[in-house]
Amino acid sequence: MQEHKRDETEPGDDALTARQRWCVENKAGLDALNKYIEQNGLFTDEDAFNVL
After folding, report:
1. CA pair distance 46, 52, nearest whole angstrom
2. How far apart are CA 25 and CA 46, in angstroms?
3. Average pLDDT of every residue of the chain
């Protein structure tokens, strides 16, 4: 019987590890963005920017 070789596009342990690594590497930036949004809102917030 031939062994199934996982295609790089299929999810697997490596993909999960890459996602986890990305989250760790970008946590500070994501936290800073979330804090900015909490304090200032988003550009599309009608009440704050009157864009709509």
Report:
1. 6
2. 33
3. 78
